[in-house]
Specification:
two-stranded antiparallel sheet, six-stranded antiparallel β-sheet, 219 residues, 43% helix, DNA-binding, homodimer, SH3 type barrels, Arc Repressor Mutant, subunit A, alpha+beta
DNA sequence: AATATTTGTTAGATTAGTCTAACTTTTTAT
DNA sequence: ATAAAAAGTTAGACTAATCTAACAAATATT
């Protein structure tokens, strides 16, 4: 098992890989908020135990071993988030930071028990998929709300980023995962949407927000 | 907030202080399984932020600040143990190692919620007292089972050490916190005790075990 | 009281993780 | 195609936490 710091490097590389395939050192260092030389020397060390493949000036790559390790950290993170919301009663906007620490806890028993108590969940409180015990992640392909058209009915399933600000905003609008919305109108000048859902007959959502909400069309 | 390592030094000093008042560097280094020079240089560093009072060749001392910090770590540890047993269904012999990692998690919200869900417990699953939110620990004065006499009826309330081996042993004998036992006989040659409890009419407990069990007399 | 033992200290080295400054390679833009 | 910009690398230094070897002080033993 790598150190906590190394786990964070693997996790960051995992996210970068899932986003755009090529992992750039600069992106990694920005994501982890360290200097590029720091990230550079760390990936060289990670190579020694075959977590990553490193070649000078080439994009970074995770090995299978490194990818699996990263996925299992993400699994611990997302199970924890689910546990904190479903069992302990936290709001979805409160759980990220706690999970960020708990994901480094070394105890299969703990996370297996969470998994069990939660009934083997497949997504976290923000709709992000939970990798399985062998590190396999099956992610569904949702659409950005911003790409939908007037008249469609959609269900909120996930979001591109789960920043506290976005989650608090959605709380204030009473929008949750699973909330179904009718797209009443799209303002052409700023791409903002007027939607209706539950008991809210007409709510305006800015383009910035719509870009970050992932939905599926309701038949 | 000190680092995780420093928190472990404070916690160790706290235990040593509660056991015999004078904190010796050698004892500290043994408890933490580091060399004496390592412990020595660390207490010097801890002094810089006024966690401890250090004077060459003198016994170590915790400052009020250091003692409170240590107590709050112990609080997190014991709340976690309680949470793992009562809410998550772990056995009392399984929780120490997990709590040892969770005690370093930095989240008042998490531990406050545990406290709440548990109904503000005052002892952990092994009968050890839980310091309150301001770091005050009120510990009851139990007797060692080994110091009791024939004919007395006692209730198991705590133990001097909660090693997995002892806990597993007690599990196998079906002895729990709260179990009331009648001391039927004390063998003079080895101080072992014959006790009866629940549906066990006569059980032999070695002196080694009796020394580690803390009880109170039942009137 | 003198000596032996234990306890504590200093010095110097090592590893993990970080930085800045300077430099090189690759990519982008004119 | 060359210059400018971006990305990546190397060198060297720093802090936290650890070690061993050597030494000093305090305590215990005869």
């Amino acid at each position: 098992m790598p150190t906590q710091t190394k786990e964070n490097y693997l996790k960051a590389m995992y996210f970068l890989e899932r986003k755009g395939s090529k992992i750039a050192l600069t992106d990694l260092s920005k994501l982890l908020d360290v200097s590029t030389p720091t990230a550079n020397s760390m990936v060289k060390k990670l190579q020694e135990d075959e977590w990553v493949i490193y070649q000078k000036y080439k994009p970074l790559q995770l090995t299978e071993k490194g990818r699996k390790a990263a996925a299992l950290i993400v699994r611990k993170h997302r199970l924890t988030e689910m546990f904190l919301t479903k069992i302990m009663g936290f709001g979805w906007e409160e759980v990220h930071d706690i999970a960020e620490e708990m994901e480094h806890i070394n105890s299969d028993a703990l996370f297996d028990r969470m998994d069990e108590l939660l009934g083997n969940p497949t997504v976290d409180p923000h709709g992000s998929p939970i990798p399985d015990k062998s590190g396999v992640l099956v992610s569904r392909n949702y659409e950005h709300l911003s790409d939908m058209s007037e008249g469609q009915r959609v269900r909120l399933c996930s979001m591109t980023d789960s920043s506290t600000e976005l989650l608090v905003f959605l709380n204030s609008k009473n929008i949750k995962l699973g909330t179904e919305m009718d797209i009443l109108k799209i303002e052409s000048f700023d791409q903002s949407m007027i939607v209706s859902y539950n008991h809210h007959p007409s709510m305006m959502l800015s383009h910035e927000v719509c870009k970050r909400l992932l939905v599926e069309v309701v038949n």
